[in-house]
Amino acid sequence: MTAxxxxxxxxxxxxxxxxxxxxxxxxxxxxxYPGKDSSxxxxxxxAIRAASQADAALVEHWxxxxxxxLFDGKPISCIDAGDIATSMQDNAGNRTRIExxxxxxxxxxxxPILLGGDDSVPIPxxxxxxxxxPIWVLQIDAHIDWRDEVxxxxxxxxxxxxxxxxxxxxxxxxxxxxxxxxxxxxxxxxAAQRYGSRFVTAREVHAHGVEAALQHIPEGARVVVxxxxxxxxxxxxxxxxxxxxxxxxxxxxIDLIANLGRRARIKGFDLVELYPPADIDGISALTAAxxxxxxxxxxxxxA
Length: 303
Description:
By secondary structure, the chain is α/β, with parallel strands linked by helices. The chain has one domain (7-300): Arginase, Chain A (3-Layer(aba) Sandwich).
């Protein structure tokens, strides 16, 4: 694993020998489609880490989103393990390493947080939970990502929820932030509906609040959140490859995370599809860093 700066100035291990509650790691590449270039997404993890540095000295300060300091007055319990080695078009190797790292973190009873990478990396990330089911998956995304194959590949950025639906340890899927047009054809919509995926459009969240999504998550369920940055509105998250107006606000997403942490158990979290070449003044990287702060805060506040 690599390098500095680490997220929010966290250590890469806890000096007192305590086991970490949360482990962050990055994976720049997952499964790249033939003839496509995923190198822009590989810049995301370090862009997020760099954006977090301004707040590194403020970890013990009061956070008004969280209602207290990040670690709720307790010692730091999150480490940043750096990036695993991935390379574009080493698709099978990338998937193997992402899944293995996820399993290693879970074996230590820690919550893994994965920084992608494009939206193919959630497939091996979620596969890594096979011994920790049943889990529910809460996807925040503009798209349903239910394509069966693209250019002969079945594990790319348009396929994750289709592949996740085939995992025996996944009990259910809730997809929130859907809007506009994208990869979904009628066949994909019908396949997702046959599976029983719960669709929650961005307009439903705007009209009825985050409960429109949370009502589909059973109380006390173990949940993995997969957050595609294009699920947010491009006004606050312009650094994505598929900008679509009408997305979720920053406040809606942190409310969704906080309320999920109270309703259920967040067992894993990934953030993908940040595309730094399209960012504007680092707004997207900063927003992504703050989303991760809220995810960590919700996780450490779980009983």
